[in-house]
Amino acid sequence: MKNILKIFVMFIAVFLLSNCTDDFNEINTKPDSFTVDEVSAKYFLTTPQYRLYAPDRYPYWRAHIIHTDRYSGQICFGHSSSWWSDELGYAYNSGYTDAAWDWLSGYVGSLDNFMKLTAPGGEFENEYMYAIGQITKGLYFQMFSDVFGMIPYSEATNPDIVLPKFDEQRAIYQGIITELDEAIATIGDATATGVAVDDVGDNDIYCGGDLQKWKRLANTLKLRIGMRAYGAPGADFAQTAVSSALNAELLDGESDNVLMQKDEEISQWGSACYGDVWYNFGAGSDWTMSKTMIDLLRDNNDPRLAIYAQPAVGGTHKLEKPTEGAEVENFEMRVEYILGILEDAGVDYTDVTLEDGSVEVTMPENMYYVGQPTRLNGKMSSFARYNFFSKPAEVVINKKNNGEIRPELIMSSAEAYFLQAEAAVRGIGTGSAQDLYQEGIRLAMKLWDVSDADIDTYLATEDMAMLNGTEEENLEKIATQRWIAAFTDGFEAWAIVRDMGYPAELAAGVEDGDIFGLGDINGNYPQRMRYGNGVINTNGDNYNAAVAIQGPDVQDTKLWWAK
């Protein structure tokens, strides 16, 4: 009887336990959780995409605005309301430089994670998503290397190597081209990465999941890299890369522009825009449009002038004469310099010398486009009145949740045409250089919504739209138009000046220490950024090896392709 009772009790216990387990499984299944059919690597793509071109405010301010946007010669600090002279960045500052290095060197982790997930044998193996990763990797390493020169590349993502070596730029460029070719071959005729959850679709904020656009982007990037390497020491691979790209489909037409729409709601500590700096700190952090940019647009009747920039606020401003010290004798020279800038811009101003020797300058309000000279020193700031100069257009500096924000420029169809025109002028490409050049201008203007009528007028009447000079003069025009079209992409605009030497007034650097800030590089044009202190302190042997090959770790050491 006792045995029967024990068996009965055990039976009841097992029955209740099994029912409880079934209930437990049901209760602990989240109704909104992902099923196997809903999980995809595409959810790991968006983050590395936006962090490459729109990181959080810390590097966006220090890498983009303080360094590359200003090294490009397109914008300036150093006006009367600025916290800094326009020498900032040209004189080394470890805090700002470290921010740029730390961002770029630390970026690769999230992209590498996406590529490992989609690689053969990966948890979400998908050859097309992996190809997207390879092309994104090419964009990244080209940007990273063009900022610093030799960087960790071949060992950068090897988990077994804690202290990776620095690769020479030639090897990096070759490696990028190899991976681009692999991605192009993988994509072939495919148009999407898959169906349903395997289609990256809207999670791809560069090309919207269009694999053929990705392939055209890859070919255009290969053309950019090949043309930049062309003529550099040991760049025997460059012409092959250029020829291969020219014989393939490139970005073409307005719909092919690779632009990244900005998220207007995301925190500036997740992803930043220019407005997150412009409107958060008052005029102290504001910047002006450069004289080089404004002059090129205004003096060539370029319809982008009123789209890129705002007229100078103007008004009446007093340039106060010091009463003692060494700067008394420099006062008239500095006043004359600033008035000369206004005269060059065609400003109808008046100037009155006051009893104490100060000068009161009055210019019409909101009428003239005036650019600020690049690299003014600290002693010029009180003369470079903020309202003398044009500011960027509102669409460029707009803050979030306050209307349109200009999307990030990844790569444009205009650049594809300018590169083709350059190849034709150099005799390594085919087609009409003039036709290719003018189509590049057309697409560059359409990128900013210039009307067809205004474009047609410019192309028909302006000498800047004609390749009618010597080979070098034609290359200067192509480089200048590329530089103008790269506005808001300081990384690429800066590279164009270093590579092609135009606009020439930027590439020449500055000399007059009474007007300009010579920085740590004696007025030379900056060729690279210095490495971050973190890598110097933790990977010193490989850092020293890189410096021994590349040259001193200073800002005027030329990169491989610029020598």
Automatic annotation (TrEMBL):
Q: Which UniProt keywords apply?
A: Lipoprotein, Signal
Superkingdom: Bacteria
Checking InterPro entries in the record gives:
SusD-like_2, TPR-like_helical_dom_sf
Q: Which Gene3D superfamilies match?
A: 1.25.40.390
User: What residue stretch is flagged as signal peptide?
Assistant: 1-21
Q: Could you tell me what this protein is called?
A: SusD/RagB family nutrient-binding outer membrane lipoprotein
Which source organism?
Draconibacterium halophilum
